[in-house]
Amino acid sequence: MRIDHIETLHCDAGWRVFSYLKIGTSDGVVGYSEYNESYGSRGVTGVIEAMTDAVIGSDPMAHEALFSRLYAMTRQAPGGINAQAIAAIENAIFDVKGKILGLPVYALLGGPVRKKLPLYWSHCGTYLFNESTASLIGQPMLKSLDDIAALGERVRASGFNALKCNLYQFSGDEPTIHFPGFARTENHPGAPELNADIGLINDLKRQMQAFRDGAGGDMGILVDLNFNFKPEGYLQIIRALEEFGLFWYEMDIFNPEALAMIRRQANVPVASCESLYGIREFRPYFSAQAMDVAIIDVPWNGIWQSYKIAAMADAHEVNVAPHNFYGHLCSMMSAHFCAAIPNFRIMEIDIDDVPWKDELVTHPPRIENGELILSERPGWGTDIDEKVVAAHPVRT
């Protein structure tokens, strides 16, 4: 049996695009993966297509040999979209391999440690700051702190025990999200110096209080600080929000020593590393004891490489969590990873999304009381419905 064809599929997902890789074998077995070509990763499809000749004719059961070859081919430009393209190929091959053997992917990683995965509701409110996006989701646009409290109550009523939010401000003329680290808009306040001023800190205090008022004192609140500050600013915010008993602060820094310095001074767990690739990039962060929770992106790294990173984390007594704000197939890929590792913390998932998201897969994730319940179906346990994908073409 050999891999004999590769195809990429794309569909409109409202404010982004869902992209899929389809790999087929000479025996007619088809596997899928989902990858990200939005948010700074444009070009992954082209890189996948450039690797096609090296993949066609390969044995789908020998994923490590194929990964090693593709890694060697891109050794002079490691990480980035090269790594994401290799990961998409690896993830689709694992779906093929699971279907050939009649086993779920988590069985290929040593079997399940758990089949119920606690979730946190990610980007809680983020997509509701834009009127057209909020209308597409079918939820009211956030315009005030009272709306934040109502959103917290909605999360609690849905059975979730944890939520993650970005940095929201209601003190100006228009409600905004503080995102200077990503240059989402020209001349974004706070860019490029990335300081935390007193006005922002006071806005964040009011935001946290509103979430507490709505969601209750038992709700785990995770705050995603992204790349939006320097170490000074991260520490200012951590100290200012001490009273709210937050679950973790998530932050991204390409400097393990700086992150370790923040962690030593923080009184709340620090989660990081979602933007890293492979065991070589993660290693210095573990050596520096830079984070309490290592965040691993399965679509960016590939599930087998992610499993290796998790094993390295376990050797350093660090738990891990997946970076997962994509579509349903990515959620299932991350779920199989979480099921198989011993050092699992909590799983990320987006709830507010386009209304056709469930239709894109044959089996949407089963969520009960804030937990994802895994099945015993082979491969990822779900396939892409290509007719539905085609019915939602990417808007140009």
Describe the protein in words.
The protein has 396 residues and is α/β, with parallel strands linked by helices. The protein has two domains: 3-102, Enolase-like, domain 1; 108-380, TIM Barrel (Alpha-Beta Barrel). Helix content is 38%, strand content 18%. It has 15 helices and 15 strands. It has a six-stranded parallel sheet. A four-stranded mixed sheet has the order 13-4-15-14, covered by helices on one side. Strands 1-2-3 form a three-stranded antiparallel sheet. α3 (63-73) packs antiparallel against α4, α7 (145-157) runs parallel beside α8 (198-215) and α11 (278-287) packs parallel to α13 (303-315). The model has no long low-confidence stretch (mean pLDDT 97).
Features:
single chain; 396 residues; alpha/beta; Enolase-like, domain 1; TIM Barrel; 2 domains; 6-stranded parallel sheet; 4-stranded mixed sheet; 38% helix; 18% strand
